[in-house]
Each structure stands twice: as C-alpha cells, then as structure tokens.
TrEMBL record:
It holds the Pfam family IL11. It comes from Poecilia mexicana. This is Interleukin-11. Keywords: Signal. GO terms for cellular component: cytoplasm. The keyword Signal applies. It comes from the Eukaryota. Residues 1-26 form the signal peptide. The keyword tRNA processing does not apply. GO terms for biological process: positive regulation of cell population proliferation; positive regulation of MAPK cascade. SUPFAM superfamilies: 4-helical cytokines.
Amino acid sequence: MKFLPETSSFLFHLLLLTELLVRSSSLPIRSSSHCGFFGSMIHQVESLMNLSRKIHQLRTEELEHFEDAKITLDSLPDLYHTAGHLRSLKVNESLTQMYGYTQSFKLHIDWLKVAKENVSLPFQTEEGASSHLLQLSNLIGKCLHPQNKEALPSVAPNLPVVSNAFDALVYSVEISDRLKVFCGWSKRVLRYFHKHS
Ligand SMILES: *[C@@H]1O[C@H](CO)[C@@H](O)[C@H](O)[C@H]1NC(C)=O
Ligand SMILES: *[C@@H]1O[C@H](CO)[C@@H](O)[C@H](O)[C@H]1NC(C)=O
Ligand SMILES: *[C@@H]1O[C@H](CO)[C@@H](O)[C@H](O)[C@H]1NC(C)=O
C-alpha cells in the first residue's frame, strides 16, 4: 500500500480498528463473572456441609477404630492442593474445577447409598446429599461456558463392592471428610465470586 498517501493509510487503519471493535462488541457475551447463581450455589453448599457431618454418626473415640483401616478410595477428589490464593482465582477455571468435583462426589455418594442399602445401614443422608450435589451441578452448569463443560473428563471411577457394614462405615468416614474439605473450599470460592461479581 505504498501508493496510498499518509492520511488514507491512517483512515484505513482507523476503519480496521472500528470494524474490529464492532465485531468484538457484537459477540455474545456470556462472561461467567456475571453469573447470577452464586447465592443459590452457596445455599446448596451450606446444606451439603450440614449433611456431610451426618454421613457417619461416629464419635471421636469411635473414629479411632477406623483410622488404621487401609482401604481408601483413590478416585475421590483430593482438594488439598487446590486451595490456592483467592486473589489468583479465575471464575471459569474454578467453576470448571468445582463442576468436576461436584459430579465426582455425586458418583461416590450414589455408590455409598447403594453400599449402605446393601448392608442395611440408613442411607437418607446420602439421598439428601445426592440431591444437593445435583442441584449444585445444575447451577454451576448454567454459569459455565459450554467450552469449559466439554473439557471435563467423563471417566466413571471403578468403585468396589462393599460386603459388610464395617467397610461401608470406613468409606463413609473418608467420603465425609473429603466432602467437608470440598464444601469449605467451594464456600470460600463462591463467596469471593459473589462479592466481586
Ligand atoms: C446448617 O446447619 C446450621 C446449624 O445446625 C443451621 O443453622 C443452618 O440453617 C443449616 N443450613 C442449611 C442451609 O441447611
Ligand atoms: C479462562 O479464561 C481465561 C481468559 O478468558 C483463559 O485464558 C483460560 O484459558 C480459561 N480457562 C479455562 C479453564 O477455560
Ligand atoms: C449392592 O448389591 C448389588 C447386588 O448384590 C451388587 O451388584 C452391588 O455391587 C452392591 N453395591 C455395592 C456398592 O456394594
């Protein structure tokens, strides 16, 4: 474009820039930071937190008998490394993570419900928790960009058959502990987004 005088080159660039701005502003904006469901999500997490304490009704001195049990669920979400600094949180990344954890906990809770049913232990708490996890998952799903939802791995964990009440209780203790950690993390993250959205 050497033959163009300075001014038309300038105008040309201005035109390009305007075009670019118009295009980007007409893109559908579905920014997760404007998600209107953080309050409802927090409510679901609080209900879950309450239920997570009831998944096993063991007292501290009884819990000691379960600490040596060497059976663990490798597929349970492990959040000990997730709890980063709140300042560096990105809504889409944290919600994608939370969505994945929610689905995973639901799979484990549904499995625990069947396990308890099989060995004649009460399973109402698991039913309640499962329903709250489903509602939480649906709410997060509404705020997630479809792109981030697709990125989720959909591997079903290979969960063992539970043949006695003792094993069912060991798994209950483990799931309850992990669920508490998940609820604590989720509540902090959601409150932060709720405040900053
Ligand atoms: C959780 O339990 C606390 C104390 O028992 C109660 O005050 C609160 O309303 C419960 N929250 C939900 C959402 O169920
Ligand atoms: C979240 O959004 C940022 C900026 O919009 C992007 O760079 C990043 O890849 C996204 N993360 C995920 C997990 O989609
Ligand atoms: C519950 O019992 C059914 C039928 O015996 C069995 O197929 C299933 O694997 C058991 N579930 C668990 C979690 O142990």
